[in-house]
Batch of 2 targets.
Target 1
Amino acid sequence: MSSEQLSSVEEIDLAAARRIAAEHRAKGSSLVTVLQDVQTEYGYLSREVLEVVAEQMQVPLSQAYGLATFYTSFSLQPRGRYHISVCMGTACHVRGAANVLGKLERDLGIKAGQTTADLKHSLESVNCLGACAAGPIVVINGVQHGKVDSRKVNEILRELD
Amino acid sequence: MSTVASEKLTGFADLDALRSSIQAQREKIETTVVLCGGPGCQAYGCKAVIEAFREALDDEGLEESVQLRVTGCHGFCERGPLVVIRPAGTFYQGVTAEDVPEIIQKTLKNNQLLDRLLYVNAQTSQKVQTEKEVDFYAYQQRIISGANEEIDPECIEDYLAVGGYSALAKALSQMKPDQIIEQITESGLRGRGGGGFLTGRKWQSCRNAQGQPKYVLCNGDEGDPGAFMDRTIMEGNPHSVLEGMCIGAYAIGSNQGYIYVRDEYPLAVENLGIAIQQARELGLLGENILGSGFDFDIRINRGAGAFVCGESTALMASIEGKIGDPRAKYIHTTDVGLFGKPSNLNNVETWANVPQIINRGPDWFSSLGTEHSKGTKVFSLVGKINNTGLVEVPMGIILRDIIFKIGGGIPNGKKFKAVQIGGPSGGCIPETLLDTPVDYEQLTDLGAMMGSGGLIVMDQDTCMVDIARYFMNFLCEESCGKCTPCREGTKIMLDILTRICQGQGTPEDMEQLETLGEDVQTASLCGLGTSAPNPVLSTLRYFRDEYEAHVKDKRCPAGVCRELISFSVTPEACTSCSLCVKACPVEAISGGTRKGKGKERTKVPAVIDQDKCIKCRACYEACKFNAVAVS
């Protein structure tokens, strides 16, 4: 890819952030809402995107960065194609969620909160997904898997390949 | 469900007329198949069942005569996916897509029951046909959650058909704001989010407060792990929340509402959004509601994954687009709240109670419950329990009845150890105190609290020190860091608990946990910090022997804390079935297989290599013959 193409890709990217921020500014939305929608668009919040949002919303970059680091649903790093969330709620905990997370960490070679180098998997732990009956719960790109144990982790990971 | 075309309602008579026409249309429907689409059933694959029904009804040409209704949570998550067939009320559980053609052929077309899908009552071992006969529901009183089955949350007509928005019409047409507040106060309704403050009194303070505009807010930031009551109300019956807020706004004198929903609940955001849009289209939200001259509208704000935002002042800061840190509340939020204006914040379940009280009267509501705790409470009953699910019980019911009569007791013949109530701010209650009634004051006296309604049951295999460490880890991560006692106190308590779990604790550690816990309770800024020590203090109070076993004997009686346990296979009990070998994630188990054929066939018992073993319990849980021992 030539450098010209690269820069045009970047321009398109930032245009979306600019548009989302401008729309929200007109509606009087909060900065948290803007960042949420921008993250939905890009999958994460890059420095460039945060700069655009801060500029559009007329706040210092530090304020946008502050929010992006305070709230755990924001990510400053790109996420994998398969985003794996392991529920660590109390009901899942007493049914062995820590073992499920441990198994995923070992199998993927990453810790919770990290993404594999090939950007295929990212792994995170979440506090409670409210589907306690079927715990331990693992969610991959929005699809729930219930009653997960070590063996089921093998099955689930196989399906992703 | 197709929607009944209707223009904006401009008067109370219009609402009644619309309701009558919907009800008349409903009376013509012969059969309704009600499918639970709640979070529990979703985890069990109800989406495939729903699709299978849609396709099969189309193929059979039944799409006109049989109504398919996908609803929010029915409560009995353990047995999902759930299907109820009306009018007979036939209750099928554990339904799969493969069962659907037979349900249609036999039950829908020929009124035959499918034996294998019926529920067997645990105590009588009898199969039962209808939901009413199921033991799980028999002891409940579902005034808030029961309507979920009648309502497709995307269909406002369903809500209107069961009397929805009649309380709003009554309030706007027949009642003065002061009268409404009086009735809510008289009913004895208290906040369902945890605090238990008298709702009517809070409304009165906000009404009396100086300053305009005023805001009414709904706290849908259900952050307690193991709690999903509010989720099921927002997802399953969103209009009940909107109607409650609208009545509250009229009573308080507010024209703008906000609902703050947890980020992990995308379906709640979606369904609330649809409900708001539909209510606006019918003139039940917006300007001049039902021609009364009263204006009210609602916005939804999504949380962004911070537990502390369930605290009132942090929630308001978050709606304002700021970091969600709380402030001291010398000045109440009813005087200075969102955007510095008088604001009334109630929890989802509290709001959902309001239309009921207006319709059925404060005396009806206060006839339920105990002297100071009125009405019902929705709990999520989870953990080591046979019937996991959502239960709604009258206040005053004893915990033992919830766990054993409704919950069906502990699975696999294990022994009950404790029930954790009130989330990370709550406490663990032992077996000896299970006859305590569900009541705000009595639970607080035990060092627990009502909280938002998570009931997590623990059995003999749960380590109470590990549970205390789990909650402290959660709170330490979620502490916003603004005040020192909470930020540093939770960190130090977590360090001590981790040490104890690793077998490095000392008797002084236990004393320090107690004194530090009391300091954090006293000196923290907000509810997160002041209640953070509860799980530690309550386990120290009721399960001190477990702490002492960790500290003095370097032993974890429940066999949980990894540094203190080892796993081994008892050769005599091992059947060499190889389940443990397959379950082991690190290939630490050898043997466990059968060699040779016929008479020559011999069993080779499994052996665990202690150097490779990571103590993950996978083999212990996989073994069906109790051959894996923890020591």
Target 2
Amino acid sequence: MGERFEQEFEELKTMVLDMGKLSTEMLDKSVRSLKNNDMELADWVISKKGEIARMDDDIETRALRLLTLYQPVATDMRTIACCLKLNTYLARVGRYGKDIACVTKALKGKKHVSKLVSLPYMAKLVTDMLNDALYSFEHFDVSKMEDFSERDDDVDHLRWSIFRECLSYMMEEPKYIKQCANYIMVARYLERCGDNACKMNEKIHYMVTGVRVEVDKDYTAECCEDGGEPCQNKQEQ
Amino acid sequence: MVKKIALSVKNLNLWYGSNHALIDIDMDVYEKKVTALIGPSGCGKSTLIRCFNRMNDVVDNCKVKGAINWKDKNIYGKGVDVIEVRKQIGMIFQKPNPFPKSIYDNVAYGPRLQGVRGKKKLDAIVHKSIKDAALWDEVHDRFSDSAMSLSGGQQQRLCIARTLAIEPEIILMDEPTSALDPISTSKIEDLVFELKKKYTVIIVTHNMQQAARVSDHTGFMYLGEMIEYDRTQKIFERPKKRLTEKYISGRFG
């Protein structure tokens, strides 16, 4: 491949990394806006929705252009294929960030039911996974993603623990229903972002090694069997 | 499914005078599969394909060591009938080379040389070969026209029909589409895909995408050595050798 390919190829990778940074920042700031009732921060996150969509389109256009013009193979092909998937996952993460910021706006002026600890902690776990996936993509090194299955399990368990905690509050005091229903929704969004980080892991693993892996397939299989019921509940039955 | 071996190359070395052009080549070519040989100019892929039907015998100062086993015998062994080898292992060249004869006579040339007589018999062979070479629709109503009146792509398919007429087992193709336009190239590629149902095909190509599209196995050669030989999907998706990766990614060669 010539210099032009190398240049456009490097630009594509940079575009994915930029999108990754913005999506992760949106997710992180959305949860901080929720925790601190910070409407300004929520507005900032919501304002970035269009930018994420534009980045998604730009990456797709650039990747398709490279595939069409240069017909890359081996590592180049795997990297471009990976970029084409990462932009989708990152767009979803960004959109979940925007959705959480909308929750912040919906709960404007309302005091939290209790000190918000679990959701920010869950967000930290998820953003760490996203950052590690982006690091792996940038440095062509999968070592930081080896424990993603366990880390995703932690995120999933947190989601159900938040669900049960919120359920208790709602049963105790119906006036908390709106807030708790929103917390449950936010936990669900964060859990989906963790799943997206796992999907990113799979694609980056393929990019680096050429081998396809499935992260956390046991969880997927169990949940599918149960029609979406939480795995932990299944174990408890 | 166990793949049957059509040709087995064992420790093949070839010298043009003092130039060691092929070095310790080992590979199995599988029956009714397409095997592509790729590599930069001068790497030895054309030399190797020419070894498969002993066409290097006509080159001065050419010395071959090692074996190419075909039907349980070494084609470089003593007492091998070279004419029979070349009949069973046909070759298509880079540039179409039809004889300055009619379309019909081009295809009937080989069978006539082998002693086939009678219009009915020859007609049957010519028609079948032209159909198998995917040329029937374009020439069935003008068999007596000169082969030189055909387009480059049609001439190349006529050469394939000429090869098929003597019923070979293996077809060697040395850059068969490098002199053709994209439409003719695509027709030849489709044809190669059809041909592998009946024949073993070995193709030398400079076009990486062509190798990826048409072949089942690919061998990458460099400076006379077979650097990597594997399933085509593996070579183009996940090559084992860094050199292969660099070549197929267009970073040298």
